[in-house]
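Deviations from the work plan: none for this task. Representative record:
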Amino acid sequence: MIPAAFEYYRPQDMAGVLAILEEHGDDARVMAGGHSLIPMMKLRMAEVPHLIDLQDVGGLSDITVEASRIVIGAMVTQADIIDSAELTAAAPILREAALQIADPQVRYMGTVGGNVANGDPGNDMPGLMQCLDATFTLVGSDGERDVPARDFYEAAYMTARDDEEVLTAVSIPLPSGGYAYEKQKRKIGDYATAAASVQITQSGGTCTSAAIAMTNLSDTPIFSEAAGAALVGTALDDAAIKSSVAAMLNDIDPTEDNRGPIAFKKHVAGVILRRAIERAWSRA
Amino acid sequence: MSNKMHIKLNVNGKEEEFLAEPRELLIYTLRERLNITGPHIGCETSHCGACTVTIDGKSVKSCTMFAAQADGKSITTIEGLGGPDNLHPLQEAFKEHHGLQCGYCTPGMITRATKLLEENPNPTEEEIRFGMAGNICRCTGYQNIVKSIQAAAVEMNASKEAAE
Amino acid sequence: MKDEVDTREDRVANLKGMGCSRKRVEDARFTQGKGNYVDDIKLDGMLFGDFVRSPYAHARIKSIDTAAALEVPGVLAVLTAADLEPLGLHWMPTLAGDKQMVLADGKVLFQGQEVAFVVAEDRYAAADGIELVEVEYEELPVIVNPFEALKSDVVLREDLMGEGGSLPDGAHGPRKHHNHIFTWDAGDKEPTEEVIANADVVATESMYYHRTHPCPLETCGCVASMDKVNGKLTLWGTFQAPHAIRTVVSLISGIEEHNIRVVSPDIGGGFGNKVGAYPGYVCSVVASIVTGKPVKWIEDRMDNLMTTAFARDYHMTGKISATKEGKITGLHCHVTADHGGFDACADPTKFPAGFMNICTGSYDIPTAYLEVDGVYTNKAPGGVSYRCSFRVTEAVYFIERMIEVLAIKLDMDAAELRRINFIKKEQFPYQAALGWEYDSGDYHTAWDKALKTVDYDGLRAEQAQRVEDFKAGKTRKLMGIGLSFFTEIVGAGPVKNCDILGLGMFDSCEIRIHPTGSAIARLGTISQGQGHATTFAQILASEIGLPADSITIEEGDTDTAPYGLGTYGSRSTPVAGAATAMAGRKIRAKAQMIAAYLLEVHDNDVEFDVDRFVVKGAPEKFKTMKEIAFAAYNQAIPGIEPGLEAVSYYDPPNMTYPFGAYVCVMDIDVDTGVPEIRRFYALDDCGTRINPMIIEGQVHGGLTEALAVALGQEIAYDDMGNCKTGTLMDFFLPTAWEVPNYETDYTVTPSPHHPIGAKGVGESPHVGGVPCFSNAVQDAFRPFGNTHTNMPHDHWRIWKTANELGLHG
């Protein structure tokens, strides 16, 4: 498996990145860890005449926990997330999810930016970021703009990012309450058959907020507002969970693949969500 | 054909410099350009881990990295861990506990295990299985690999204690 | 020369002979990254070859334009069938008596089929050249189901049609349809049908043993180097049978066999994948002859999974009859075997369905009949024995499922049903209804030991409680107890009925003792991880009394090794291991004469004792083997030639029949279909145990491959013949995380006809493991009305079973 030939760039700053992007348009692609892109290039399913390696661009590898938000640089790896005690204290769901991505070697290379930016419906971080109501910072020649994760994904590999923009950071409002990232997969290294991110708060035994997003059950991650709403104001009894699951099922649109047919995926999505809700509630 | 790049690597403590096409994958650089044939090619899609090397302190699947990405970095392969006169405890333990059969996954497996033990010197069986899940073995069923790593951990901790 | 060790015990230990867990001598190089696998070979001026492959499963090739590819800098040649035809190499014979296209000759029959071979200075140019070969295809109707193939008007193999649409016989007799390959049967048809028709109880079941793949971590490949000066071709490659490859290459290329040297270097796992001859080998040889340079061809993983050597793909229908008390009276089995586009199964010539006729299993079944129909479809060729003797996994899966299905029909405990039908110890050698003579066994002892160890009754009680809890809504997990008792048939095999391409399936060992008492032994087999260099030296150590550490074992180079049929079907220990022991005994016989001469007594007055010959009744008078070796080269002994060497070609009188008892305890999440293996107990009886450490390692590995096959590993196609499982994302190879710890155990029932009583073990755990894992899944659902569901039991199929049984409310 040999990729087609390409030109390789390793700019030292964002201006350099943007200049190359501007020059080559969609013939150019930025690469972080490369663990999604390189296999596609080797299989010749992705042709990238101009490859821009972001590793030398400074300021993309920081994790900052502020009073009301967390900022994660695009080049922060899954391994960095797992290792950051500060981050885990602030938003433990990130570590729980990161541990369920791929395998140890891939987690050293796989980045948050790459995971959320390329629009692969199999990736775990997009749904997670939607659940956490994260905002993605995009930098282009016209400057910076922020796009909410919940508005970012349009279709498989199609996102709100323009070809000439680079996703540089993810900002997450400091979450509170209980959390869970629940994923069913066939083996280590597989994408989810179904995965659910849940972040939930309660007061006096009543759910005060709930955010729910699902992974690999549509051509984009699915933030199910209705599924969250179904829990708010309830005591998280069986009926509430049932109606949340029903709402979620209304929002997803899985397709058949080697993991199984649609009916199975829907069923598992429901089971996984229920378990995620119950686990999150137990931690709320 | 694209422009060749000037690439510098430190491999197993030795400086290497060469010109290569950007699309040259690191595994081919090691195996074909530098004749370091310990790391192997198993799946080519970053699933099997036979090509695992250590780059600047991270376990990396070298089939999924271009040599150009590694420019300026330090790489350790199985050949850099120990030789006939100074075997690494993991190399000893894999032999002692029958942690290999055909040997094809072994260089990647041992290289990954060095990093695992560096990060977690006293892993439980579960932690070993989870930490080694990026390396596929078709022969051993993993049981003796786990045993080998446990034994190496004990050995390494003992010699660390003795040194202190 | 005096011994450094004194007591007999010390002398035995010093040999590191049979029965001890000698550490492997192979490991030093492998643990230091110094193995030498085929892709490690680098020769001056070496070129790289790679294939243009068909994207279609069935298509006519209208044209191939190589001009643009040849323009790529570094591309030297692009071979097509038209280039090979003048050499007669555009097709090649298969091991199954069929022929196979080396490069597409006018049409393609499966996705990924080899269409053109691009030869270039490096792998980058080859890859770029492949992209630019323009092939014009005309798509043809695709058939991926063998039952449809037998009804279809579409002719897959026009090359096999006779004049005027007639249907000439195939390699194995008459063909019923243009997509039919052979019918092969064993046993007594009418008597079996009669017994079943008149039986108290009959259970019937249809089951599909899905297509899968051996998928060793190292793919297949070779380096061909034609030395035009010396006229000698050297071929290094991933060959499980290097001598057979040499003979095949000679037969199809016309190069005399003495001018061909085939070398198997270290092999990164085989499991059957590396038995066959592939188009890549032929094209590399041709390319080397054409260019005069060495040519390397190495599959990538996708090539490997999609084109070389699938396994299984058997549609099996069984009928089993019994008395009301559960005594089995008859067994009927029909198989529709999907062989893909060419019949490239790797079986002994007279056995187109391998040893499927071992499907009466471990049971005393008086009447049986087996019929197998081979069929062409638009899928990749192969049909190899994936970690098993020829089709034995299929046979054992079949009978171990039929036993379970019968137990359900009889409403009887499946362990008890097995027990009352086992062949009894005193019945061995046992003549089975389908033709084989089982050499030895003690099934009851093994079974009782297994059930006692796992507390079978306790497990059943726990399972019953679990069913109650499930029904009461207290749990959503069911518990399955998987049982399996298998009898393998390995060690092919007696030359009178086993050959491959006409080559008798003996094996060989040649030993040279060096003057200072060390030795080299060469064999016709080739290790792919089994540790031959370690274990064969142990056999010899015990036979000739020199330490295993002083014995080098060498395999895989046809210029030096004696002719042998290679390593697969667990034949190394039963056949080459026997040859080793026999050659060792020849050494010993000569040593005895030398010892007697040196001790100045009659030949019959000395006897062998561990590492020496002693004078009978006077143990203080002895000559060690080391002393004898020295004398053999340095002393003129009347009537005895100098030197100490021996060779043995061993034609086994019978197969060997390892057996074992396995139990798996599994918990199944009914809602997600996720199984969790709680416990796995494996008792193996492989006869005499040469190296317990290696045996255990083989068992762990074989069980893990069994787990994979049973729980998810498949080669799947869509209706258009597209292979859906071409990478390790979708082709299930479990990681350490998905694999449990195994408990191993053993009994020892030596083979009576094998010189050291050994039976072979490498494949037993796979053969016995697959039905055990499968039975565990199916057993979990038995209380809810399940009789049979097909493998692989991946999450969604387990879920589907639960769903169809109404367990999702």
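Chain B has five helices and five strands.
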